């Protein structure tokens, strides 16, 4: 956080007339180890918070105006927005530029008030549209910043839910709760098994020095606000309704097979992914607890194949990256991570194989890949500068 906050503080001085910001907040992106497209089905997910994140630095003002500049790479123009603090009579609404919608949404859904005006600068090292949850890290960093201006009750679950609501209503993305939850609740040295129905969590240690987590960015940018994500969600709801269940979390593979005739082939395959993935995620968390990395890796590969064939959210580039990773000695498993259609893969491997794996993948991949060896980080934090 320190380097990003210092860079943002410099930009703050230039944008807002030389003064130093008094406040800073940081929130991480995430990589999901397994449990994909299960969160909005009330299932399990197993993400970890990254060391990559988004920082907001700023100070309150007396004029009731919010001015925010982003320095994040890839953000659309204009990079500076100004708008009055929202009130009952004049709420905020989404618009252009798109990056500001995540910030405005969080301000609109903030759980305490009244907020003062403020000046702020955003900096981020989470690649935008890279499937590492740049949006949730921006939302949670914004919320954490607002908590310093006007403290809320400190309820972490409510904080994650408010950020999710911001994404639904201001970015038009009907996401599940995984990304905001891990960005708030992440713990250094741990992955987090989240039950997305009860919101109960179990910390799973991930500190074995002989192990590495390699994130590989395909640099194919994904956009999830298109029609694919909402349409997958609807298909899952359709399958659950046909099975007479509130969500696919409550359905079994045997029930799905028995009802196969009532479903279209496509909806059947979507449900088969989700039901199978929920089971795999629980097994994977147990395997990780037991340091059984071979089983974990096998489940990762099964997850990828199911996302590719049944859920149809992978793409050629992600398939190529996974195939190349699996050729390397010392790799336990590899899969696409996040919503799909581009973005990143995650690979679990022996630490000693990390360099070799990157070289091999680079040589095999038809595009240009970017690599991150990551360790599980803490969730969002605030800091006085
Ligand atoms: C995106 C969503 F934001 C998450 O809620 C989750 O559904 C994920 O795709 C797929 O697992 O990141």
UniProtKB/TrEMBL annotation:
Galactokinase N-terminal domain span: 12-60
Keywords, in A-Z order: ATP-binding, Kinase, Nucleotide-binding, Transferase
Start and end residues of each GHMP kinase N-terminal domain: 101-187
Cross-referenced Pfam families: GalKase_gal_bdg, GHMP_kinases_C, GHMP_kinases_N
Annotated ranges, domain GHMP kinase C-terminal: 285-365
Domain of life per record: Eukaryota
PROSITE patterns listed in its UniProt record: GALACTOKINASE, GHMP_KINASES_ATP
Family note: Belongs to the GHMP kinase family. GalK subfamily.
Descriptive protein name: Galactokinase
Protein species of origin: Apteryx mantelli (North Island brown kiwi)
Gene: GALK1
